[in-house]
Amino acid sequence: METDRPLVSVVVPVYQAERYLPACVDSLLAQTYDALEILLVDDGSPDDCGALCDAYAARDARVRALHQANRGVSAARNAGTRAARGAYIAFVDADDWVEPDYIEYLLRLLREQRADIAVCRCETDPGPQGPETMTLSGEEGLRALLYQKLFDAGPWSKLYRADIPRTVPFPEGMFFEDLAVTCRMFGQAQRVAYSRRAVYHYRQTPEGTMGGRHVARLLDEGKAAEMMYAYVTSEHPALTQAAACRRFSACCQALLKLPEDGWEAERTALWATIRRDRRQVLTDREARRKNRAAALISYFGERAMRGIWKRIS
Questions:
Q1: What pTM did the predictor assign?
Q2: Which of 63, 74, 186, 188 lies 20 to 30 Å from 164 when distance is taken between CA atoms?
Q3: What residues contact 131, with CB distance under 8 A and at least 6 apart?
Q4: Superfamily of 8-201 according to CATH
Q5: Burial, 153: exposed, middle or buried (Cβ in 10 Å; 0-12, 13-18, 19+)?
Q6: pLDDT tens by residue, 46-59
């Protein structure tokens, strides 16, 4: 039987983040909800992150430092999830930080609405109009994720019932793993609680996955989109059109960030997916305006898409 103050595990994958890690951990130690364990998973970071993790663990009993050879952010999140002892699990990136009532607020939201996942707005999100909180069915939450209306696929800014991430591990050895995994987590939820309060602060850094232009990372975005699409069409066929819209968005991002020279086979594959999905996106009134605009522009060819993207980015 759940206690009034259940333990919440916060998993922080750590790699080359010594500049930002103190702000992140300090924001977690300052939480108004203190029934916490903070798992700092040093993913073989070549800087002083490992020593910082150990120092925090020595200073506060709520902090546990885990160390592993470098295997990527997915492996670090999985290691933290396996070690977590809490009834609920949250993921926070080492270069982000949270408001003092982040955990208390999400836990209250989750329990009051009898949800399996609670989601808040990130500071960088535009934020929809309407009531501060709402409750969605699991499928409604998955639809919102796929259409990128209320929230996106990042594992951060969310609090999960612990059995959900324990049964849906992150795929190791790839980037943009969020898209492949978070949809499965939402697919397991019966109810999703959402708040438009921005209590999570996402920091865009050149060192982060999204900030780099490494080709392998971009190509993984297309692979993750295909994994997401396969899952949704198999397990939630009513959301096939929403999945096509999200795949279209991911493939556009990957294609437009790829170098214009080389990688012909990969560019051809991404372009084929864009062409396959664009009619559905263009005629889907639930799709975001910029996705529908991209679908329309795609009919003028890849060069036209690249030219317009360069002007607006």
A1: 0.92
A2: 63
A3: none
A4: Spore Coat Polysaccharide Biosynthesis Protein SpsA; Chain A (3.90.550.10)
A5: buried
A6: 999 999 999 999 99
